[in-house]
Design brief:
The protein is mainly beta and about 120 residues long. The protein has no helices and 11 strands. Strands 2, 4, 5, 6, 9, 10 and 11 form a 7-stranded mixed beta sheet that branches. Strands 1-3-8-7 form a 4-stranded antiparallel beta sheet, with no helix packed on it. A hairpin with a 2-residue loop joins strand 9 and strand 10. It is globular. The chain starts with a strand and ends with a strand.
């Protein structure tokens, strides 16, 4: 059974930091591209950061580049999003995503989301 569980969200003041975690089970974590997405109230879901298998390459949305860092630990089947210098516009529900394209089939797993609120 596939499980994808986010944790680490919460409330933080502008300029603060948070570390999100995504723990997984039920699939071959090391073979999946891992990403973080977010969805703010009234907006669509957007990609925040992606890390390829083996962690060889990362990609960030322009709005978070230089402030967020994505990492993965294949041994723990977990990946992380370190967020620094948070801004009110970072307020959103953050979702963990695992994706693999294999033999023409896309395997796409999502967590339930964790709320991040940045305000005074």
């Amino acid at each position: 059974q596939v499980q994808v569980v986010e944790s680490g969200g919460g409330w933080v003041q502008p300029g603060g930091s948070l570390r999100l975690s995504c723990t997984t089970s039920g699939f071959t974590f090391s073979s999946f591209v891992m990403s973080w997405y977010r969805q703010a109230p009234g907006k669509g879901r957007e990609m925040v950061a992606t890390i390829t298998t083996t962690g060889g390459s990362t990609h960030y949305a322009s709005s978070v580049k230089g402030r967020f860092t994505i990492e993965r630990d294949d041994a723990e089947k977990t990946h992380y999003l370190e967020m620094y210098n948070l801004k009110p516009e970072d307020t959103a529900v953050y979702y963990c995503n695992a994706r693999q394209l294999r033999l023409g089939v896309t395997y796409d797993y999502w967590g339930q989301g964790t709320q991040v609120t940045v305000s005074t």
